[in-house]
Amino acid sequence: MHPGAETAGLTLLRAAEAMPRSSAAAVRAVLAGIGSYLPETLVTNDDLSRTVETSDAWIRERTGIRQRYLAKPHETCAFMATRAAEAALRDAGASASDVDAVILATATPDQAFPATAVRVQAALGVRGFGFDLSAACSGFVYAVSMADALIKSGQARAVLVIGSEVYSRILNWQDRGTCVLFGDGAGAVLLRASDGSGADAGRGVLSTHLHSDGALGDILYVDGAVGQPDHPGHLIMNGKEVFRHAVTRMSETVDEALAANGLDRTAIDWLVPHQANMRIVDAIGKRLNLDDKKVVVTLDRHANTSAASIPLALSVAHAEGRLHQGQLVLLAALGGGLTWGSALIRL
Ligand code: ACO
Question: For the whole model, what pTM was predicted?
Answer without folding.
Answer: 0.92
